[in-house]
């Protein structure tokens, strides 16, 4: 599996491209990175609805005529701009829930980890897990934004600690980690929530 990554915009939000087919979190200006590397993509998936992760959804959706996926609890962020940053609004095509989906030949597991936002998810395919702003290398996503919940984050971390296997974890900002490494540092964060 080929993973391309480019940090986009002032928050260095990682846009990932899987096998030149699946685009994850196209932030501000990501369309240029996508246009450079991608010919016939299948879909855009957002790990959550924050503006720096979805800014170029609309541009790329229209460029290739492909669907946008997001968890149902964050869909309103794409359509309504609840934070007032005025990103290009887009209507998602598929509303995700926890479970397994198929996009083209890709088997994708969606896990729901609310806390940073109500509809934060991880996206697993092959040996990779895209974790958005739920888990970073050594830390966790902020829970002091509107629609965030520290209580939910606590439960999400406890749920993550039970994942029995290892995979690489590719976060929404910063470098990669792994499920096993994250399971080692996460208990400390529970104390701060
Ligand atoms: Zn976020
Ligand atoms: Zn972010």
UniProtKB/TrEMBL annotation:
An MF annotation (GO) of this entry: metal ion binding
Pfam families: Lactamase_B (PF00753)
Transcription is among the record's keywords: no
Swiss-Prot/TrEMBL cofactor(s): Zn(2+)
Residue ranges of every copy of the Metallo-beta-lactamase domain listed in the record: 12-173
UniProt cross-references to InterPro entries, sorted A to Z: MBL_Glyoxalase_II, Metallo-B-lactamas, RibonucZ/Hydroxyglut_hydro
Keywords assigned: Hydrolase, Metal-binding, Zinc
SUPFAM superfamilies recorded: Metallo-hydrolase/oxidoreductase
Protein name stated in the entry: Glyoxylase-like metal-dependent hydrolase (Beta-lactamase superfamily II)
Protein's organism: Caminibacter pacificus
Phylogenetic lineage: Bacteria, Pseudomonadati, Campylobacterota, Epsilonproteobacteria, Nautiliales
